[in-house]
Specification:
Shape: globular
Number of helices: 8
CATH architecture: 3-Layer(aba) Sandwich
Strand content: 15-25%
CATH topology: Rossmann fold
Number of domains: 1
Number of strands: 7
Structural class: alpha/beta
Largest sheet: 7 strands, mixed
Distance between the termini: 29 Å
Order of helices and strands: HHEHEHEEHEHHHEE
């Protein structure tokens, strides 16, 4: 059985602590732009009637619900997350939605997905890959459970190319965001967010990591002046 590292356990506990205010702060701190980013990512799914889609690091199920809204009723969605508190909130949201019969949840880390090989037609992970301690293992696990011809879609924060916009972005991320997050939740958790974004590999480094794992036809799309990026890769 997979065991989280000490760092992984601390990240897990941190998300458990902020879970009750997580959705509210996502909307507040991103000015609602995160919804548009998720919608753009979901539009890149590959699916057909009866497909199965996996949302890794599903959190409270926002992407899983967007997938259900955007796909035929025969498509089944599984949300997986290593934080039980997040999953429990997601289950409540889904139960109150029209898609309760199409979405299921599992408590599991990205590095140890409890599914057979070649299970899913598409896999999404939104704002979660930077929280995976062993990213290569996480990518390898997603590749394993993806069917041949399937597509992985990763939505993640990135660093803007424009020097001026990058300075503004870093000021907001480092100085403003933790203070606002601390007012409504935990300061340390919202200090971790910018730190984790700034430590994330460059687009070239991360796309190379994807290729090394086995993904092909890798493509990167910048969103909102490069604040976020969508990475796609396929399993041949």
């Amino acid at each position: 059985m997979f065991r989280l590292s000490d760092k992984g356990e601390k990240i897990q506990q941190m998300f458990g602590a902020i879970a009750p205010r997580y959705d509210f702060l996502n909307r507040l701190l991103s000015f609602g732009i995160d919804r548009r980013w998720r919608t753009k990512a979901v539009r890149l799914l590959k699916y057909q009637q009866g497909s199965r889609i996996l949302d890794v690091a599903t959190g409270t199920g926002d992407v899983a619900l967007e997938i259900a809204r955007s796909t035929p009723s025969s498509v089944q969605i599984t949300g997986a997350d290593f934080c039980r508190e997040m999953v429990e909130l997601g289950q409540v949201k889904v139960a109150a939605s029209p898609y309760a019969d199409r979405i299921e949840f599992r408590v599991a880390p990205c590095e140890d997905l409890p599914f057979p090989d070649n299970t899913f037609d598409s896999i999404t992970i939104a704002f979660g890959i930077r929280n995976v301690v062993d990213r290569r293992l996480g990518l390898a696990e997603m590749w394993r459970v993806l069917r041949p011809g399937g597509r992985m879609i990763i939505l993640e924060f990135s660093t803007p190319r424009s020097q001026l916009f990058r300075q503004i972005y870093h000021f907001y991320f480092r100085r403003v965001l933790p203070v606002i997050g601390g007012l409504f939740s935990r300061y340390n958790a919202y200090k971790y967010l910018p730190d984790s974004v700034l430590e994330f590999p460059s687009q070239n480094e991360f796309s190379t990591m994807m290729a090394d794992t086995g993904f092909r036809h890798i493509h990167i799309r910048d969103l909102t002046f490069g604040i976020a990026s969508i990475y796609t890769g396929e399993k041949e």
